[in-house]
Every structure is written in C-alpha cells, then in structure tokens.
Amino acid sequence: MRPFNHPCLWNGPAWPYSTSVTLAALANLLNDYHQNVVTKDDYVALLKSFAATQHDPDGHPMVREDHDPDQNKWLAQGANYNHSRYADLVITGLVGLRPRGDDFLEVNPLAPASWDYFCLDGVIYHGREVTIFFDRTGKRYRKGVGLHLLIDGTEAASAPMLRKLVVPIESRKPPSVGESGGGSESSVPPGDLALKSPTGGTLQRLPNGKEEQGR
C-alpha cells in the first residue's frame, strides 16, 4: 500500500463493506452456480481473516472505515463505523440460512466439515422461529447427531452430515418486538448455544447477551 497522509484511500486498504460484499458474492457463487474454482474452504479462510479485524487494539468488538491490508490495525478514525455485514455473513453463509421469497426454508452450511458443532437459535424467518444446529457426536446439544433444522421448536429436517436441506415453511405474521415465534424457551439446552471458533475455542452466549471465547 502506497503511504499517503490521508486515512480514507482506495490504494490498498481493506474496507469492511467491500469485504462483506465480496464474501456474500462468494456464498452466492457456492450456492447458486456449478464451478470448481472457489471452494467452501476459500470462503471460510476469507471469513476467518475478516473476523480477525472486527475489534479494536484492546480486543473489544469494533469496526472502523478501513483496515490496513498487511497489519492488524485500523486506518480511519471513528469507532463503530457500521459498514460490516459480519453477522449476516455468519448467518447466511457460514451457517447457511439462505433467504428466499417463497414458502421454503433452505439451509446449506459452508461451515468446515471438520467442526464438531455449531448452533444458530431463535431466528425469526417468515414469521417462524428457526433453529439450525450441527452436532457431530450428539453430546453437545443432546438433540441428536448431525445437522438439524427446527421450526418453532419442532424438527423439520435432519442429515447425518453437513449438506443442503430444503423444507416447506408456512409463513406467518412476524411476532411483535419482545415476543418469540415459538415460545420463550430455547430449542437447545440453555448454556450450550455455542459456535465453534476457527481457533478451536468456542463463542459462548452469556446471560447479558454478549459472547466470550472459551476453550
């Protein structure tokens, strides 16, 4: 990157919004096209690199306007510059909840086949509450082995390994703010809602709604 005394330049910095658009395009390519150039591993590697930038020097979650492409530091000032679609990339790409306009629920995880577990819980989709989880051994969530798709707490489909699942879903009026589409209780045991991180730890949901990385 060519040095210049200005923080907002298009001469090499990584821009969170542009990186988000690129990752969304890769997920669309992997889901909607037949090709043998881009792989799931490519998507996960770029998402992992992107995830490493989503914090300030002290490790707290934060996004600025642009990031140094070679060093772990933000270039522009101004914290919480919300140009990152990181959560969307995890939901629609990594976990694989693919938005559709018809009455079908499609899930096609791009998560690594080597992962032992992950869970996305309490997502309101077409007015229904959706849970997606993968448990290689069945011991993490104690709800069965493999990939499972639940609608309003009832299992709609499953598979022994990660693969695409498509099931009918009857749309309903979305619940009001503060309400739940399928009841107030989680579809998986409390305290076990965790996403296995690429470093081998887990991101564990805390009572205050924040997340921490465990081992």
Walk me through the structure:
The protein is α+β, with helices and mostly antiparallel strands and about 220 residues long. It folds into two domains: about 15-85, no CATH class; about 95-205, no CATH class. The protein is built from three helices and ten strands; from the N terminus they run H-H-H-E-E-E-E-E-E-E-E-E-E. The strands form three sheets. A four-stranded antiparallel β-sheet has the order 3-4-5-6, with no helix packed on it. Helix 1 runs antiparallel to helix 2 (about 40-50) and helix 2 runs antiparallel to helix 3 (about 85-95). The protein is globular, with a radius of gyration of 19 Å.
* Overall outline: globular
Largest sheet: 4 strands, antiparallel
CA-to-CA gap between the ends? Answer: 36 Å
Question: Strand share of the residues?
Answer: 15-25%
Q: Structural class, judged by helices and strands?
A: alpha+beta
Oligomer: single chain
Whole-number tally of structural domains: 2
How many E-type strands?
A: 10
> Unreliable stretches, pLDDT < 50, 5 or more residues?
190-215
Number of continuous helical runs: 3
Radius of gyration: 19 Å
Q: How are the strands of the largest sheet arranged?
A: 3-4-5-6
**Can you give the mean pLDDT?**
82
Proportion of helical residues: 10-25%
Order of helices and strands: HHHEEEEEEEEEE
